Amino acid sequence: MAPLYQLVMRSGPTPGATFSLEGDQLVIGRDSSSAIAINDAEISRKHARLNFQGGKYVIEDLGSTNGTFVNGQRLVSAVVLKSGDVISLGEQIVLMYEALAADAGETVMSARKGAPRPAPAVAAAPASMPPPSPQQYYAPPPTAAAPAGTRMNNLPIFIGAGVLLLLCVCIALGFYIDNNFLWCPLFGPFFRVVGYCR
């Protein structure tokens, strides 16, 4: 049976290499025994797995060091692929997932045997099942962290805390003086001028 899907390497060690997807379970990795072997330092020995389910391939990361991404989003669980999806393995390896028709035209590499053979032409993906919502499968993008060695300026915090403490002391002191009728004994000369103390 002719393959329905293929991966085309857009960037990596062999740009333009095409892998037809044949089989129910295909491992992508650096290990030569992988169905799709990519010899690159960014690829883990067993990096990701493609499972054929319901007429479509589902991709999942196998705990790789540099991660597996679909359309720029890092995988945290399995994702159903659709034609045109961009799969990134680490930062340098980019594969395009494409659906195929039954005609031959260009030479591709079989994912199962690694031997060149005629490749079917590209066709639209079956539209029987809508693609899953990205929010169901993707981890939120990482927040930007401060560069290593950068120190935070604490001066505004200390000034704000000092002003707040001084304000609290002044208010407490005012209440104490007012409750103990100490305005005249402490500030008599000033209050005599304004006529408050006799």
* Gyration radius over CA: 34 Å
Structural class: alpha+beta
Order of helices and strands: EEEEEEEEEEEEHHH
Distance between the termini: 111 Å
Give an account of the 3D structure.
- This protein has 198 residues and is α+β, with helices and mostly antiparallel strands.
- 20% of the residues lie in helices and 33% in strands.
- The protein has helices at residues 134-137, 155-179, 183-193; strands at residues 5-11, 18-21, 25-29, 36-37, 48-53, 56-61, 68-70, 73-74, 79-80, 86-89, 93-110, 116-122.
- The strands form two sheets. Strands 1, 2, 7, 8, 10, 11 and 12 form a seven-stranded mixed beta sheet that branches. It has a five-stranded mixed beta sheet with strand order 4-3-5-6-9, with no helix packed on it.
- A hairpin with a 3-residue loop joins strand 10 (86-89) and strand 11 (93-110).
- The longest helix has 25 residues, at 155-179.
- The chain is rod-shaped.
- Residues 103-127 have low confidence and may be disordered.
